[in-house]
Write a sequence for this structure.
């Protein structure tokens, strides 16, 4: 008993030593640490270039919301709100008038100029009508390797100069009285104009608002100062003002109707695949013999009243042969001709008359008529006739 207990203690001790050694070796060769692996932008960030700006503004407790499509341009927000548009795009005269009325009521529109000014073909749109022009100078240098120019701004609440980067070469032109909010290399990059109670702010470049650049320089701070709405207002970030495709428009207007149409289409396609009635027997590809073919042809002609023409042509040819070999028959009528032929062939006058001058009533009569006509076709060359006048 003591030996067994001693053996158990020895084995247990060895196992404990082995486990302790393995744990010590593991911690001596491995360490626990956290690594950050870049996986790129999320699908939402790839779709929305202003997502980081939206979240930053919300962190500052500024009400902000990203939207897409042109609905926000058609149904304008409250006059206390700020509307940021990356490219306003073409607008009808009525839409422009409504947008101008919204600005005069106190709205703040921030829009990026997208098309450069060409003297021969100036771009059409709201900014052109208001006298704003986007100029491009290819010879303008850059302050950084990324091709940007740095604008240094003096903001009252900043306590130090605020730096904002703009794409090199692009600058704005406006009218007298427009306020220059940002300039780089002596050229305006942001212009602002008072329209009634509201403001129109035009950007030469909106890159400082996007996900890739808002964390650089003082972009985030400047964006918060520029986009801040009036008291009680909201910030609308319209990151894509392109017209959505027709399917998206219809789905937004009548989703239940589209669902019903889709269900009906599926049911219709399913009904096309269903079998109606018995299966059609596969045709027999074997060649039929001549008798079977003639029988089928005769049956078809009988069912479609095609025998009359065949019988008439046969009777005319047979009767013509008889008259050519026995000219005296031509002087008599049908009944006398039938009597003469009956006397020659040994057939009854009634059968001869019915085969040459009458139509059969049924298939059996047609068969008898055909057989008798065949006999008469072979008979005109044999002997002479004596017809009754």
């Amino acid at each position: 008993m003591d030996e067994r207990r001693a053996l158990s203690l020895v084995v247990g001790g060895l196992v404990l030593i082995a486990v302790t050694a393995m744990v010590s070796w593991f911690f001596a060769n491995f360490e626990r640490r956290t690594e950050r692996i870049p996986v790129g932008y999320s699908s939402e960030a790839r779709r929305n270039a202003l997502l980081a700006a939206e979240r930053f503004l919300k962190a500052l407790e500024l009400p902000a919301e990203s939207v897409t499509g042109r609905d926000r341009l058609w149904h304008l927000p409250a006059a206390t709100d700020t509307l940021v548009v990356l490219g306003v795009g073409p607008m009808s005269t009525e839409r422009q008038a409504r947008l101008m009325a919204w600005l005069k009521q106190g709205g703040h529109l921030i829009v990026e100029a997208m098309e450069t000014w060409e003297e021969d073909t100036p771009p059409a749109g709201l900014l052109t009508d208001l006298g704003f022009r986007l100029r491009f100078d290819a010879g303008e240098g850059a302050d950084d390797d990324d091709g940007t120019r740095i604008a240094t701004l003096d903001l009252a609440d900043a306590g130090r100069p605020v730096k904002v980067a703009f794409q090199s070469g692009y600058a704005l032109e406006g009218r007298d009285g427009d306020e220059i909010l940002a300039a780089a290399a002596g050229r305006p990059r942001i212009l602002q104009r008072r329209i009634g109670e509201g403001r129109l702010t035009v950007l030469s470049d909106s890159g400082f608002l996007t996900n890739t650049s808002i964390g650089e320089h003082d972009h985030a701070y400047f964006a918060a100062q520029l986009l801040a709405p009036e008291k009680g207002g909201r910030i609308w970030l319209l990151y894509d003002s392109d017209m959505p495709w027709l399917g998206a428009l219809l789905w937004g207007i009548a989703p239940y109707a589209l669902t019903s149409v889709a269900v009906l289409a599926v049911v219709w396609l399913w009904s096309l695949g269903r079998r109606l009635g018995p299966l059609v027997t596969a045709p027999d590809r074997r060649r039929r013999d001549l008798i079977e073919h003639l029988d089928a042809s005769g049956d078809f002609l009988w069912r479609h009243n095609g025998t009359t023409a065949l019988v008439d042509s046969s009777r005319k040819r047979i009767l013509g042969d008889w008259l050519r070999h026995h000219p005296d028959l031509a002087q008599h009528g049908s009944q006398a001709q039938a009597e003469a032929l009956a006397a020659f062939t040994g057939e009854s006058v009634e059968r001869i008359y019915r085969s040459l001058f009458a139509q059969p009533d049924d298939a059996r009569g047609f068969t008898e008529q055909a057989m008798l006509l065949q006999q008469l076709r072979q008979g005109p060359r044999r002997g002479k006739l004596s017809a009754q006048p």
